[in-house]
Amino acid sequence: MRAHGIGGAADLPIPLSFVVVGAGVALALSFAVMALAWRTSRFDEPRDGRLLPAWVATAVDSAWLRGAIRVLGLVVAAYVGWAAVAGGDAPENPALGVFYIYLWVGLVPVSLLLGHVWPLLSPVRTIHVAVSRLLRTPPSEGSADYPPWLGCWPAAIALFAFVWTELVNPAAEHVSTVVTWVSLYTAVMLVGATLYGDRFLARADPFEAWFGLVARLSPWARVADGDGRSRVALRNPLVNLARVRPEPGLVALVAVLLGSTAYDSFSRAVWWIQATAGSAFVPPVVRETAVLLGFVLLVGVSFSVAAVMGSGATGGERRRLPARLAHSLVPIGVGYVFAHYLTLLLESGQAYLIFLSDPMVTGEADLLGTRDWTITYFLSLRPTLLATLKVGFVLLGHVLAVVAAHDRAVRLLPPAHAVRGQLAMLVLMVCYTVGGLLLLFSV
Fold it and tell me: pTM of the predicted model, to two decimals?
C-alpha cells in the first residue's frame, strides 16, 4: 500500500542535477516575465467566464441527480463497511484500497474534473441531512454558532491525524485501523454537525476541506446571469482558485498536505532508512511522528515568514498575508499528489477493483464481476515516462503557484513594492521545487 511507484532519478532522460537546475531557472524566468508584463491583478476581478445553457444548471441542481449521488455514496460506504467489519484482516480487503487509494487519491482528479462533489458523496453529510429532515430543522442550523476564530483548524488537525495514520502508524495496513479511524471520524463529524450545523463539516471534515480546495482548480463555476438566476460557467481555474477565502487554519491545512508528502519521500530514502535502522534511543513511532510534524511546521513557518516579508504592507495587512496567499500552495499540493501517487492510483487501484468483488476475502466470490480482470502495469513498465511525468507535475504545480501568488501580490502590495515584495516568496518557491524534486527522487 505504501509503495507509490517507480520512476527514480536513474530513469530520467537527463541527469537529476540538470532537472533541478532547470526547474529553478524555469520558475525564476516565469517570475521575471510576470514582473514585466503582469502589473495588475487578473484573477481577483469578477469574471463570469463562459456561461453554459440554463439547462446545465437545472440538471446539476436536480433533486434526482443530487439524491442519486447521495444514495451512491451511502451504498458504497455500506458495502465497504461490510467488507471492513466482516471481511478478513488481509491486504486484499477492499476497505484498504477504498480508504487509502480511491478516497484519498482518487477524489483529487475527480474534484479537478467535476468540481466539489464530496459534500454529495460524503455519507456523513447525507446522514446529517437525513437526521435534520427527520427533526425538521435546516442542516445549516445547530445548537450553537461556529466560532469564527476556529476557521479550518479542525480540518487541519484531522488531516494530520489521517496522514499520520497512513504514513507513520505501524498498523496502517490493518483493516481494524481503518475501522477505528473511520468510526472516530464519523462520530466527531456528526456530533460537530449537531452542535454547529453543516458549516462544521465544511471547516472540520479533512476530506471536504482539502477536496474543496482542489475543486477550486476545476474549470466549473456558479455565477448569476442578468436575471439573477444561478448558472454554470466555464472559467479559468486560477480565477476560481483566487476565490478561496482566507481564514484561520488555512495555512496549516495546506502545510499538512505539503509537509506530509515531503515526509513520505524522505521516510523512504535509503540513507534515512539505513541511518535509523536498529536505533533504540527513541521509539520509531515517536521519532517518525516528530519528523512528520517537523516537515509540516517547516512548510507552514517558512511560507508564513516569506509571505510577511512582502515589503510595503502595513502591520495589520502584513499579518494577514499568509492566509491571503495560502491559496497559491494548492497547485503545489495537487502536483505532489499526482507525482507521488499516480502509480498507486492507476495500478494498485486496478487491483482493488478486483478485490471489491470479494469483500469477505474468501478467494471465491465475484459479486461485481471483476474477479477475472487483469492489472495493466502501463506506467511501471515505462519508468522513464513515469519519472518525466513526476517532474512535470511538480514543476507545473510550482509554476501555477508562482502565478497565483504574483497575481494576489500585485493587488495587495503597493505598486512600488509589488516586485521586490515577492522576492522572498520566489526564493521559497524555488527552494520548495528543488527540495521537492530531490526528495521525490531520493528513493
Answer: 0.93
